[in-house]
Amino acid sequence: MNTNPFSSAAERNRQAILDQLKVLLPLEGTVLEIGSGTGQHATFFTRNLPGLVWQPSDREENLAGLETCFSDEGNENILSVLKLDVLCDPWPGRSYDAAYSANTAHIMPWEAVIAMFTGVAAHLVTGARFCLYGPFNVDNRFTSESNAQFDAHLRAEGSHMGIRNMAMIESLANLHHMQLEHKLAMPANNFILVLKRS
C-alpha cells in the first residue's frame, strides 16, 4: 500500500499548471521550487518537461515524505531535496533559471512571503521567471464565495494565514526587482502570477 503524502488538489490542478509552464519556463535549465509539499507537482512536471532539472525544497518536517516520493519516482531530473525554511535556513549558493511555488503565499506568515521573495530574487538569473500559483484577491476583493470561505477557514486555523491581495504581491515583487508580467486566471478561482527578474 502506498503511504506517500498525497494532495487531491495537486492532482487536480497539475495539468492546467503544466499547460502554462510549458510556455513560461525555459526549455532547459534548473527550476527552484519553494514548498514542494507532497512532491506531486515536481514528479509530474519533470516527466513532461524533460529538459528541466527540478530542485525541490521544503521545511524539515516534509523532507522524509518528499524523499520517499522521489525515490519511488526514480527521475534523475529531480535533485536531492533541499531543506529550506525561507525564514531561517540558508539558501543555496547558486542561481536558477526559474522558480516556482504553489499554494504557499496564503499559508505562510507575511514575513515568510517577504523572505521568499527576497531569496528568490537573489537566486534568479536576469530575465528568469518566478511562477507563483494559488488564490489571490483582486482589488482587495475575493474572486469567489468559495475563496471567501477558504480565507475564513485559514484565519480560524491561524491568524498568520489568509489569501493575499494581488497588488501587495506585485508591490513586493517590484521591491525585489521583479515585474508582474502576467496574471493568468486558472481553474478553481486560482491564478499564476508570472514575475520576471529584471
Describe this structure in words.
This protein has 198 residues and is an alpha/beta fold. It has a single domain, classed as Rossmann fold (3-Layer(aba) Sandwich). It has helices at residues 8-24, 40-48, 63-73, 110-123, 145-157, 166-175; strands at 29-34, 52-55, 57-58, 82-83, 96-102, 124-134, 136-137, 164-165, 178-186, 190-197. Strands 2-1-5-6-10-9 form a six-stranded mixed sheet, with helices on both faces. Strand 5, helix 4 (110-123) and strand 6 form a beta-alpha-beta unit.
Question: Mind telling me the CATH class?
Answer: Alpha Beta
Sheet with most strands: 6 strands, mixed
CA(first)-CA(last) distance: 47 Å
Please provide the ordered H/E string of secondary-structure elements: HEHEEHEEHEEHEHEE
Whole-number tally of structural domains: 1
Low-pLDDT segments, ≥5 res: none
What's the short version?
By secondary structure, the protein is an alpha/beta fold. 37% of the residues lie in helices and 27% in strands.
Offer a few descriptive terms.
Rossmann fold, 6 helices, alpha/beta, 198 residues
Protein topology:
Layout: H1 8-24, E1 29-34, H2 40-48, E2 52-55, E3 57-58, H3 63-73, E4 82-83, E5 96-102, H4 110-123, E6 124-134, E7 136-137, H5 145-157, E8 164-165, H6 166-175, E9 178-186, E10 190-197
Parallel strand pairs: 1-2, 1-5, 3-4, 5-6, 7-8
Antiparallel strand pairs: 6-10, 9-10
